[in-house]
Amino acid sequence: MTIKMPRRKFVAGLAGLGVALPWLRRPAGASTAPGPLNRPLVVTSKTNAFVREAVTTAAWEELMRGGSALDAAIKGTNVSELDPRDASVGYGGDPNEEGFLQLDASVMNGPDGKAGAVAALENIKTPSIVARLVMERTDHLMLVGKGALKFAKMHGLKEEDLLTDTAREHWRDWKENLSDRDYYMPPVDKDKPEGGGTINVLVLDATGDIAGCTSTVGHRFKIVGRVGDSPIIGAGLYVDNAVGAAGATGQGEESIKTCASFLVVEKMREGMTPRDACRYVCQRVVDRHNGRPMFSLKVVALNKRGEYGSAAVRGRADKATGKTIGLDFGVHDARGHRMEAGVALLPPLTEAELKTIPWR
Ligand code: GLY
């Protein structure tokens, strides 16, 4: 059955007001229905305290205005891309090793199965919007570097300097502390900024349509030209309208090698809950590294019923409290915004272990 926009708007609006929607529920006693449907639903990997609630709220409000799941996923992502306090995504993110930003992003739309992506895009604050334009206005899936920038400008996006003073200082401190055999004289060893990681926004609308968006600066201080998993469909993001969606953050190279998001969705297709599917993929990564991966990878997922979950290879130790952080993930449904706990397979790396990793 094709559900036309007015009905969708009506349903989404009612759900937002907390009105019970009996026609969205499975018949009582249906064997595959462990509980009522939880639609609409927004899930994000984002943990950065400045933006995490604003991300899910922006996506939710877009749904309430009658926007599609894809509109909502991008609206939520834009909050993180445009906030200079978020060191991991978009404008104000930490730059590459030469001090400028190259951004990666992807979008995937469940109803038509289409996807778009950009990689190593410079000088555009919202790479997710360019990824959508690639999906909707070309027959390609991914544009990179100069071509992506030209394409963005062709569609009216403004070229801007993305490097804020704070991000420039992060880069300068990193460069000064790289070695004691160069001419730089760092004053102090400063704490590394907490960006809250790459953003995934996954959205299930009131009618069961699903979409997702992923956006990132990639690794801070990465080699110029490095592309991670975020723009790779199946790695940093995957959506199947019949099943669910998944997104990955963390060590992008491992996400690519595992086809992390695709694998999560396939495991949900086989019947796993989102959380178990995420855990399965993280375990696969741990096993590939003989039980001792020296990095983390986190995956978040939702299914068509509105269930959600997340798992990570490991979290990070908070320096002040010693507590494990970085495992939580944001959810917004009819109950509002909240952070939910994800699971970790391994404890955080110790300070001594972190010192053995060249890019730390
Ligand atoms: N997961 C983000 C990256 O590796 O680029």
| Class by SSE composition | alpha+beta
The averaged pLDDT comes out at 89
Q: What CATH architecture would you give?
A: 4-Layer Sandwich
Number of spatially distinct domains: 1
CA-to-CA gap between the ends? 52 Å
Approximate strand percentage: 15-25%
Order of helices and strands: HEHHEEHEHHEEEEHHHEEEEEEEH
* Cα shape: globular
Number of helices: 10
Descriptive account of the structure:
By secondary structure, the protein is of the alpha+beta class. The chain has a single domain, classed as Glutamine Phosphoribosylpyrophosphate, subunit 1, domain 1, CATH 3.60.20. Helix content is 30%, strand content 22%. It is built from 10 helices and 15 strands. The protein has helices at residues 5-16, 52-64, 69-82, 127-137, 145-154, 165-176, 252-258, 260-269, 274-288, 351-355; strands at residues 41-44, 103-109, 114-121, 142-144, 199-204, 210-216, 237-240, 244-250, 297-303, 308-314, 316-317, 324-325, 329-333, 336-340, 343-346. The strands form 3 sheets. Strands 4-3-2-6-5-1-13-14 form an 8-stranded mixed beta sheet. A 5-stranded mixed beta sheet has the order 7-8-9-10-15. It has a two-stranded antiparallel sheet with strand order 11-12. The termini are far apart. The model is unreliable at 1-33 (pLDDT under 50). The chain binds glycine (GLY). Glycine binds at residues 198, 216, 218-219, 228-230, 249-250, 252.
